[in-house]
Give the backbone structure.
Amino acid sequence: MHPNRKKLQDEMAKWQDDFEKRLTDCIGKRKLRSKNVISIDDLSKEEMDLIFDCTKLFKEFIVKPDRKMGLLKGTSQVNFFFEDSTRTRSSFELAGKHLGIDTINISKGGSSMDKKGETLNDTARTLDKMHADVIILRHSKAGTPQMIADQIKAAVISGGDGWHEHPTQALLDLYTILDKKGKISGNKVVIVGDIKHSRVAGSLIRALNKYDIEPRIAGPPTLIPFGLEKVFKCKVFYSLEEAIKGVDVIYALRIQLERAAGAEIPTVREYSKTYCINPARLAMAKPDAIVMHPGPINREVDLRTEVMDGPQSAVEDQVENGFACRLALLYLLLGGDRR
Amino acid sequence: MHPNRKKLQDEMAKWQDDFEKRLTDCIGKRKLRSKNVISIDDLSKEEMDLIFDCTKLFKEFIVKPDRKMGLLKGTSQVNFFFEDSTRTRSSFELAGKHLGIDTINISKGGSSMDKKGETLNDTARTLDKMHADVIILRHSKAGTPQMIADQIKAAVISGGDGWHEHPTQALLDLYTILDKKGKISGNKVVIVGDIKHSRVAGSLIRALNKYDIEPRIAGPPTLIPFGLEKVFKCKVFYSLEEAIKGVDVIYALRIQLERAAGAEIPTVREYSKTYCINPARLAMAKPDAIVMHPGPINREVDLRTEVMDGPQSAVEDQVENGFACRLALLYLLLGGDRR
Amino acid sequence: MHPNRKKLQDEMAKWQDDFEKRLTDCIGKRKLRSKNVISIDDLSKEEMDLIFDCTKLFKEFIVKPDRKMGLLKGTSQVNFFFEDSTRTRSSFELAGKHLGIDTINISKGGSSMDKKGETLNDTARTLDKMHADVIILRHSKAGTPQMIADQIKAAVISGGDGWHEHPTQALLDLYTILDKKGKISGNKVVIVGDIKHSRVAGSLIRALNKYDIEPRIAGPPTLIPFGLEKVFKCKVFYSLEEAIKGVDVIYALRIQLERAAGAEIPTVREYSKTYCINPARLAMAKPDAIVMHPGPINREVDLRTEVMDGPQSAVEDQVENGFACRLALLYLLLGGDRR
């Protein structure tokens, strides 16, 4: 064996053994009650804290030169994406592989559901009979992951459904706030942009509310659902300048460019003039405010490049935290006492 | 190491060791003569019995909490699907991974065959030069897998070709009959629906004939090839009620909805009125008759939901048996004395 | 454990241990300076020799019955193909898996780049934050892999960009010459066909020049860039008969059939009449000349079938060498002293 590889292997075996011990200690008697993570409402505040504690540990793992642990060896994961995705699917797939899970991908194009008219239910039951342990499901129709999860033994994690929820995004977002600010509760947060069509916002507001944060919501009236303040604890602003004042966290959503020139926003240019996070607007927030975005970013529309690439941007941290968070979640759903 | 994981690992190591021993004993001096499984006619009755004996063992494996065995570690499998597939591809891919095989997927869309005009032959020879051990090939043109297999060293398993054959489907179907009825020979079987365009029927009738079963074939005259009784041992009925009387096994095929309103069937509604397996028709079969279907199912057309989800349905057993059967087949083609 | 498997496992453990030792000795203090392989110009002649020395060793590995080594266990590889590919992607993916790398695929269709307007840069930075170790990138736009590589930590290997370069193809091509002829320098080489739109030719001419080979270039004037002889050391011929005389190596490029009947070539038939490598033309080269082609081949247009399948063809060797070469390259970029 190459001496470097031998050394690395010995170090990593020791480190991983210690890591598993620390992970077990960290979890203690806590566990996730639900077999699924489909809505943020599947999780209590205590369960979210558990996920964040584990995420913190997994952040040590992902920077190691050897990222293969057999913690979930012998289990299987199906990444079932009915909408295109790069970051969510890649993140889950790599996370699964690093934990020793056998992963397979099913995408809309390659499945028999389109052409052969099979119901999604029947497909999911099929996967269940192959004893898949966890299914990561992204679907354009709100409610689909829940309907599937109710019928099968396998754990289901939503990778986003319609305009409804994207719970792992909210988890990584809150973890990023925790990591950057040292705490979640007590931060002032503004969410900017297209709330109406955003599953990210759907999960994020729910999650912030659990930590007693009432986010400010800023965007054009056409992109904020009517009566939002009656459903969630939040405060709606049509002026970004007013909303951004003194906040700790600026969360810009992605504007879907294809909506421009439709009924909902006049032009992209118009939108960006009023709602793009630029240096001047950023300066109205607290001096140590962080800027977040779920990606993919429309540069110069959602965020100005100097903001995205500037020192207050937490955008790349979000990606890294998302990776760690998905490792943690897979472990909590399939590992430890669950095995 | 987490105490649960340690315990699981020790138990599984012991179980797997014993499993491999039982598998080796079960196989004994038997083997598959052909390097390929392309047609049911590649297999003698004795070889099919061998596959079923191994399938029975692998059914113990697939319900274990740790489903990773290194039996075929260091080999490689290419899933080469020129037609969309969910269950066949997923089943083969997961089976391969669970046995430690390195698997890769090639689909029509991502290959250079479409756009660059490469012949399938040349692509297969290319894979052969990467020393792939087994290629799972689904193609819309009958005869393609055989043509490929003749040119390369790698084992070829057909995942279905045109209207011709789908041998692993027939294997899992017969295993399901064996499992549910305790024997294959001696059962009365009716196959219902679109025989003409069904590769499933093509392989199934061949397989049943090997076990001296002369299946009854029921469907509209337009969907049953003329002269079928001269090619295979079977008996054609145009009345499902007549055909279903007293059978042990009802095998419904999938009607391709796009054929309706064409020359072959008048309307889906008409077809389902005459040939859908509903509770009344099921009651004409033996009281302990089982209902099978290769999937994906057109609910209310091929089968009524109460039949599919009822106690006599073996549809989900078929999926599970298919998974076990593909594990067995991969092992028989690549493992044991073949290594 | 099955006695054959036990025996194989013991033999392979011993062989692999010895292999790693020989590999380490072979490499010695040499290393690749660049973290990326995007252009042949990233590599000096000495570095190419290093790759070839390792390729030679890996050719022993790829014919072994157990092709799984943990040399790069715990690293991750992203195959990011924006253009369809069978052989390049399969070759890299299998190579990665055989070395124990966790590999994932991203294709144009399944990524968020198309529909969501994300920049490629942002996608690459995303993958970087998941700590991918190497990204294999094929893109239709020349220069894209370099632009990406400059922004991220991960190693980038180009799988071909536009009409620009395809460096691993040139590496396998030169290795094939070395393997068949016992040396690279000193061989007379003719490259035939569509030079203008060929990234293969772009990299191959650069690579040959490093070994002081001035290739002859043969093709219709419309398919040879004007002034080519001023950019590279080469000699242009419009008559294939003149160019092919006495050469050691005939390298036919793929003509893109869709170019025919355009401005650049009159018809495929016309092209093939003048430039297809047929037995008569092959006979004008040295008697032991070899025939190469990057694939996929247009039979009867680029090469006549009797030439492609004849004794002088090195086409299948190229595929096999490409596989070994990619194993070597991944190891040199990620293994040994780099770990």
